[in-house]
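input
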Amino acid sequence: MDFVSHDDDTITEMLKVIGVNKIEDLFKDIPKDLIINGLNLPEGLSEPDVLKKMKEIGKKNTISTNSFLGAGCYFHYIPTIVDFIISRSEFYTSYTPYQAEASQGYLQAIYEYQSVISRLTQMDIANASMYDGSTALAEAAIMASIITRKNQIIILEGVHPEYIEVVKTYCWGQDITFKIVALDKIGNELNQEIAAVLFQSPNFFGDVEDVSVLVKEIREKSPNCLIIQCMTDPTCLGILKPPGETDIDIFVAEGQSFGISPSFGGPGLGIFTAKKKFLRKIPGRLVGKTKEINGEREGFLLTLQAREQHIRREKASSNICTNQALCSLSALIYIISLGKTGLREIATQNIQKAHYVKNKLHDIPGYEILNTKPTYNEFIVKCPNVDSLIQECKKLNLLAPFSLSKYYPNMRDVVLVCVTESNSLESIEKFIKASEAAIKNKEGCV
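output
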């Protein structure tokens, strides 16, 4: 969108209308030591020169031909229809649909999103989306504490480290204590004072947990606590058992994989679902369908909302202020365009291609696959030289796997490899070549 600045006459007129003598008076409440006196900016340019300059800056970006980096943000095929629909002005310029009579189109889109997510997850209800997967998990922890009136939660190992940090922050503000527990030690930690158990499957390392067995163990030893499952890549629901079939109380996920480009790490989409009995405690908002009082025409409206802006402050269970409407629309169009068979095909290719790369790396001397459970599209590998592998990937214009030493210092030479349906056979062969070259570099340094 082109920018045309105000001229001096327009600025003078605006200041006169609001009763201010000069622009600086608008900022008189800001401490003077915080005000910057001038910016080191170049002279103004014409529009053609600005465009030329921006293109030159853009060329500095490294655009990888293919990615083997996952860890919570994924490259997937996005049908062309997704960007076409969300680029329509009635969608991308819309704000929160407080006025139902003026927002029926967007309200229906959100309602359909809720319906699709509920059907996909087999959970009773889905809200109108949240900021991202991490805040959805944190809100779920708070919700569980409010429902059970207990302030202790357990987080199982394998939850995304960044999600854990967000949950920590939320819990600190609510005086909720938490403990990170290994999966095989969960039985020793369960008691009647636990509000919820939070776990991820497929987890951060790609492992697919036996959710039914885990839920059964928790129910037997702590029947009143809530069980919360999260996912970072819910495309796996095209082939894995949905959470609604395993007696999960609250299910949350990062919906970025549903038609949203990874871009520079955002935006995300917080998927939030729950059992029907928790309807009035769910954070965010729900869009409902209704009929006229004196007629049969159907309409859509914002209904239950837990935010303090809409109800008595002391009764509020959440401070979530908005939803990712444009992102949820992307997810809706993505899921509808793929359909049941399409999403199953996406999930199948993720499993098959990741398994193929896993076997190829296993055959290279010096590489060790560390996963002992079935995996989805990610797995962890011990490498001879992580830095060399990353450099070799860069040489071949590949986005390298994630080095786990960032979060786990004891995993110095371990990477998290991600393979999705977007990885071509050519890119996979390049990655295997880079992995082999990293071995030679290691040998050359010895």
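quick obs: The longest helix spans residues 325-362.
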